[in-house]
Specification:
The structure holds 2 protein chains of 2 kinds. Chain A contains 7 helices and no strands. By secondary structure, chain A is mainly α. Chain A has one domain (about 15-230): Four Helix Bundle (Hemerythrin (Met), subunit A). The longest helix of chain A has about 35 residues, at about 195-230. The chains are: A mainly alpha, B mainly alpha.
Chain lengths: ~230, ~220
Amino acid sequence: MIKHYDSLKIFYPLAGRLMPWFGWAFALLGIFGLYWGLFLAPIDAVQGEAYRIMFVHVPSAWMSLMIYAVMTICAITILLRRSKIAEYWLLSSSSIGASFTFLTLVTGSLWGRPMWGTWWVWDARLTSELILLFVYLGIIALGNAIPEKRKAAQAVSMLTVVGSINLPIIKFSVDWWTTLHQPASIFRAGGSAIHPMMLTALLLMAASFTCYYFWLILWRVRIQIRENKQ
Amino acid sequence: MTPSRYFIFCLRLLLRQRREVALPLFFFLIVLSLFPMVFPAKDLPSLAPAVLWITALLSILLSLNNLFREDVEDGFLTQLLLSPAPLSSLIAMKLLAHWIAYVLPLFIALPLFGLWYRVPTENLLVLASSLALGTPSLLILGAIAAALSAGLKQGGILLMLITLPLATPILLFSLTITDMAANGLSYTAPAYFLLAMAIVSASLGPLVISASLRISIS
C-alpha cells in the first residue's frame, strides 16, 4: 500500500489534489482560531490580554516537535529503503521546522517581556527550544553543503536519527541543570486548568498550523519532483 | 587488516604526526590561559569546571577535523572497506587511538590547569573523572559528524555546528557532577548517566560512523 503511494507518478497528482484542501483548511481554521482566541476566549486572570500570544506560541512549539518527528520517520524510511518522496520530504521539512522553532522563540520572548520583565530567561524550555533550533540549523547546513540530492538526503537522515535519540536526553539534561540553578518557572505543570474556550482556540490553531505544514510540504515536494524531471 | 593491527597502525601514524597531534593541545592551553586574563582572580575557581569543559569540547572537536578526511580523499577508506574485518570494528580502533593521542594529553595538562585556576587537588580529581566519563561519547558524537562531513569543503565548521548542540547533555551532565561534588553531594546519578551514554555510543557509534562513511564515499 505504502509502496503504491511512494511512486512519483501516483504521488504527484495526489499531492496536487490534496493541496487545496490543506490550504483552505489552514486558512479557515486559522481565521476561526484567531477570532476565537483573540475575541471569544476570556481574559486571563493573572496574565491579562498578553497571554493571547499563546495561541500562536503553543501551536508553533508543538509544530517544531511534530515536524522533527515526521522528519525522523522520513529518515528511517530513507535509511531502510529507497524512497524519492521521503528524501524530498525530509530535505524540505527542515527549514519549515526551523521556522516554527524560531517563531516559538520569538513569540515566547514577546510573551516573556510583560510576564517576566525580560526578553530572555535561561529557563529549561527556552534553552531546549534554542538547542532544537540549532539542531535544525545543523541539519539544514549539512543538507546544503552536499551537492548531490540523494547523498544529502542520506547524510541528513543519519543526522536526524542521531538527533532524535539525542533530543530527549537534551531535554532531560537541560531540565535537570536548570532546576539545580534556578527556581521553577512561573508555568507549573498542572498548575491551573485551562479554560475550555482557550483550549478550543488552541486546538483550532494547532490544526490550522498542521494543515499549513502539509500544504507547504506537498507544494515543496511537488516542486522538487518537477525540478528533478527537467 | 585485523582490528588490533589497525589499532597499532593508527597509533604509529599518530606518533609520526607528533607535531600535528600537539596542535589541539596547544589550542587547549591557549584558550585556558585567556580566561584568567579577563576574569578577576576570585571568580576563577567557580568558573573553572565550565571553562575546562568548554575548552576541552572545542579542542576535541578541532582534533576531529581531519579524522576521516585524508582516508576519504586518498582512497584508503575504500581499502578498509575491502578488508575482511567489519568497518565498524576498524573505526572503533581508530577512535580508541584518537582518544589516546588527543584526549589523554588533556589529562596530563590538568595539574597545570589546577595551578592556573587555583583548583584544589580533590576537585581536580572530580574534574578528571567527569572528563574520563564524558569524552568517549563526545568523541563518538563528533566522529559521526566528521564522517558525514568528510568529503566536504566546509567540513570543519559543519562538524562544529552539527556536534555542539547535540553535545550539550554531555556538557551539562559533566558540570552537574562537578556542581554536586562542590556542594558535597553524591554525584553518582549524573556519573551513571554519562557512563550509560558512553556505553551506548561506544556500542552503536562505530556502526553509525561506518554507515555514514559509506554514504560519504558513495
